[in-house]
Amino acid sequence: MKKEYIIPIFVPHLGCKKCCTFCNQRTISGEKKQVTAKDVTNTIEYYLKNFKNENNYVEVAFFGGSFTAIEREKQEELLSAVQPYIKEKKVDSIRLSTRPDAIDKDILRMLKKYNVKTIELGVQSTNNYILARCKRGHSFEDVKKASKLIRFYRFNLGHQMMVGLPDSTEKDDIQSAKDIIKLRPKMVRIYPVLVIKGTELEEEFNKGDFTPLTVGQAVERSKEIVKLFEQKRSAAGIFPYGASFLLLSISCKVGRADCRNDVSNTCYILLIHAQKTPLNPKRFRGVFYIILSIILQR
Fold first, then answer.
1. How far apart are CA 117 and CA 128, in angstroms?
2. Helices marked H in the chain — which ranges?
3. What's the CA gap between 184 and 158, in Å, rounded?
4. What digits encode the pLDDT tens for the residues 79-119?
5. 75 in Cβ contact with 113 (< 8 Å)
6. What is the pTM of this model?
7. Is residue 212 helix, strand or coil?
8. Which residues, including other chains, have CB under 8 Å from residue 180's CB and lie 6 or more apart?
9. What is the C-alpha to C-alpha distance for residues 287 and 257, in angstroms, rounded to an integer?
10. Sign of the C-alpha dihedral computed for residues 168, 171, 175 and 176 taken in this order
11. I want to staple 213 with a disulfide (CB 3.0 to 4.6 A). Which of 71, 128, 137, 218 is the partner?
């Protein structure tokens, strides 16, 4: 079996026409400048040199920045930088994340040409009031239309959802999970909401207008959502899914970086629920933010 590797390339805010209340991608990713084709090449070369095995499945991933909302010329510049590695079979495919309202037929045809395999949509919530409350700038109808198009053009469809958004109750988050399941993504990422410095949500937090979930509440709410996705897979007669974490070094509380143990334990608990296997939580010390990726089958 091939070992899977992802080469991450961050394009913070590059395609974002709006700024969501909870988002500061430069803080999240650590990237302070905009990415060029040379940066893409240098990043790929660095990771390829550090992969231990030759029999790997390697995917270049463009995270953040609503990739398909970037100017077309810039999209093609970045995607073109990956093509020599695909031709030489050093890289197998490309994945990217984007907004639901930045998908159309022309964009998808272009992405096919550049060997993009997986498109992740930032759904966050399926409740239109909550989407407006967070200044997302799109509706759930946009999510449904984009998901249908992505599947029609035979890309792997991924969804990203958030739990604990402003004014979002546990019932709202559970309903979002149920709505997402109906759209048949191949994978879902669950993001517990964190207050990031330099965001509008930080201002709400400081004024007392927003209270984030505690670590325990985030675990319990995510656990119930994981169960829904697990039931979906069980109903299809598929073996229990694997789960992986993308670990980003950002502060998990406003102005603080002293909750390493709590978050690493959260990471451990979520993995136990996802994989039913004992893992050593010490592996995750020093991690401040977690994303649970659940691989779903159609």
1. 29
2. 25-29, 37-50, 72-80, 83-87, 105-113, 128-133, 140-152, 170-182, 200-207, 215-235, 260-275
3. 9
4. 999 999 999 999 999 999 999 999 999 999 999 999 999 99
5. no
6. 0.77
7. coil
8. 123, 126, 159, 161, 188
9. 10
10. positive
11. 218
